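Onboarding guide, step 5: your first structure request.
Type a short instruction followed by the sequence, for example:

Predict the 3D structure of this protein.
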Amino acid sequence: MAELLDSSVRLHNDSGIRARWLVLNGEAEFFTVTKRLHHRLHGGVDEVGSLGEVERKLYETTTRRQAEEVANWVGVDDICVLHDPQTLGLAPHLAARGLRVAWRCHIGTSVASGIVDETWQFLRPYLRTPEVCGFSVAEYAPPQLRQEDGKVLVLRPSIDPASRKNRPLAAPAVHELLRAIGLEPPTDGRPTRNTRGARVLQDDHLPPDAPMVIQVSRWDPLKDMAGVLEGFATYVAPVRADAHLVLAGPDPADIPDDPEGAQILHRLREAWQGLPPSTRRRVHVVTLSLTDTDTNAQVVNALQQRADVVLQKSLREGFGLTVTEAMWKGKAIVASAVGGIPAQIRDGIEGLLIRNPHDFQTFGRAVVQLLEDPALRNKMGEAARRRCASQFLIDREFLDYCTLYRRILSGHRIMEQP
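The system replies with structure tokens like these:
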């Protein structure tokens, strides 16, 4: 989200639309509830149970207070675009102050289920207020919104090709950055002094010429980093004794609204420790600090540029930005056919899609297929870059935002449903 908004706000202002970006705060209990909303809208299991009055009171108390803070920064002529469930509760309070409000939801699932329906029911009182609701995939919108003419707009996330994460990097610069974080061996044989805010868990360095597969994700159960590790160890490592796996994600301490991150990373490290030594030395776990966003972006760029195959074996996925980044870099991709990923990658054209993300054997075979067929890798990588250039760059997303603003400013109003 931070990367999306950083580039988007800059492009708005460069284009003459005055925009700024506010970050809101809340208690840990509030973010625990909103994380449950996040998983539920993906169709995940909520082990805590149903959403009740305790959750509603906490959600409304926090969002009401946040709306009061926002009011110090905005005026009645402004349009407020709220992002994701954490902020939706602000909508009625901001509208009551005369503001025009839109909501953008980056997450969701097109698969109907009781838990998804219950979650939309919890959010329904706040959904009445936004004049337009943007979704990454049209099917993510709840049925009651889709029935209202003009209320739903498809806003697919995009990447900024000029950002540090997506600029071209020459091979020497890639290897220099990976040596700087300690992932690749130093050229002079001396221990590397890590100056890039990264921590690398590994038994041995990544050889500069070794085939490498990578998944870059948050430490989130829905990203299934543990499943990537198991699939590689069981079905890739025994076939390709030269292949290495890199699992990279942000330092959980730098993401206060994601209380699960540290637990997921801890369990992954334990799973890494339990691998046979011959496999463990070919698996590298990289944790990247977010305190210096430019450096973080450079290192992620280098990791993706270095990869032979990029993975996104999510169990659920709203819209895979790391998939888009890999497409722009011309990489062949193996990903789960879940959420918004099939809207990005066409199976067999830009990459290989796994219908069942729990099918580790099919996942492993797809990775091996691409490792052993450079021509296929190149063909898919080139197709992925062309598709990204035509559909998933920030200029196109900005035009979608302009469509949203035109709908609101033209006087488009939504009749509230009882």
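Each response can be followed by summary notes, for example: Residues 412-418 have pLDDT under 50 and may be disordered.
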